[in-house]
Structures are given as C-alpha cells and as structure tokens.
Amino acid sequence: MTVDQESPVHSAEPRQDSTETPRGRKEPTRFVSVIVRWARRCLAAWRPIVLTAAVVAALGLAAGVYFFQYRPDQRVDDAVARQAIRAASDGAVATLSYSPEHLDRDFAKAKTHLTGDFLAYYSKFTEQVVAPTARDKHIATTAKVVRAAVSELHPDSAVVLVFLDQTTTTKDKPEPLVTASSVRVTLTKVNGSWLIAKFDPLL
C-alpha cells in the first residue's frame, strides 16, 4: 500500500516540473521580444520627427545668421555703395561743368570733390588751359549723370563708372551740342568723405 500511494506522487512531480520549466524559460524571451519590437516601432516613429526637428533648427539658425549678421552687413554695404556713387556723380558733374561768367566759383566748387594728385592736376590744368580758353571762346559746359555703378568697393576706396551727357555751347556755336561720355572715377575716403583721386575718361 505504501509503495502504491507513493508511486503516483513521485510520477506526478516530474510532470509538474517539466511543464513549469519551459514556461519559465519562454516568458522572459517573449517579454524581451515585445520590448525590442516596441523599441523598433518607437525608433521608426521618432526618426522622422527628430530629422524634421533638426532641419527646422538648422533653418532657424541659418535665418538668424542671415537676418542678424548678413542683412545688416548687406545694408551697410548698400549704404556705402550709394554714398560712393553719389560722391562720384556729384564730383564728375562739378568737374565737367563750368561757365565763363563764373569760372572761379565753378572751379572752386569742383576742387571740394577732389584730393591728392588729381586735385593738384585739376588746379593747374583749369588755371592754365581751361580758364583762358573758356573766357576767349565763351565756352560753357554742363554735365548730367545718366547712370553710375560701383565697380570696386573697399573700406577706404572705391571705383565708380559714371556715364554722362555733356551739353556745350560756345560763342561761335551757340546751339547746344550734346555728347555722351563716360569716366572711371577712383574715390578715396578722406576724413569720412569720399573724394575723387583719379578721373579717367573711358573710350
């Protein structure tokens, strides 16, 4: 009787162990696989979001650099270019315009736009050549800028191409004669003002 009662007990215990052991091994494996699949789905879902955020951040940085650094520099450059064009245009008009009745005044006005060797040359040339001829032949000439553009621009120098129409009258030919001309004006900044250092006619 003792043997018959113990036999079923001993035979049942190994079956219970065999069913629990596989379950105990499979549950962690299933759990890990679920976690891995979840992590992959999260990574797949967040990848475009992270990429989009990175692109937006890059664009924001580029926009900030453009508006806060590049644009102010560009505005400054544009302003300086306009100043150079204005100085070259006003100087060219003053240099090429005079009337026999007001030669001294016209030449003095032109000299305020000039500097360096060109100022010295202009003073000598107008005194020795232009003034006697203008008085003798009663020559009057007026220049008008048609267009002008910056060719070179540096902190203390600039080159501006100036295109003009010149209207000239003389005692022998009182009918106005209009001629087109162009000059390459080299500017130098002196005490904060753009002055003409070279004045080269273009063919």
How big is the Rg? 45 Å
One letter per element, helices H and strands E, the order comes to HHHEEEE
> What is the overall pLDDT average?
78
**How helical, in percent, are the residues?**
55-70%
The main pleated sheet reads as: 4 strands, antiparallel
Q: Please, how many helices?
A: 3
By CATH reckoning, the class would read Alpha Beta
Q: Give the total of domains.
A: 1
Shape: globular
The CATH architecture classification is Roll
- Spatially, the strands of the biggest sheet line up as 1-2-3-4
Query: From the helix content, strand content and strand pairing, which structural class follows?
Result: alpha+beta
CATH topology: the name is Nuclear Transport Factor 2, Chain: A
Total beta strand runs: 4
Percentage beta strand:
15-25%
CATH evolutionary superfamily: VirB8 protein
How far do the termini sit from each other?
134 Å
Any low-confidence stretches, pLDDT <50, length ≥5? 1-27, 65-75
Transmembrane segments: 49-68
Biased composition (Basic and acidic residues): 12-26
GO cellular component, one term: membrane
Organism: Mycobacterium botniense
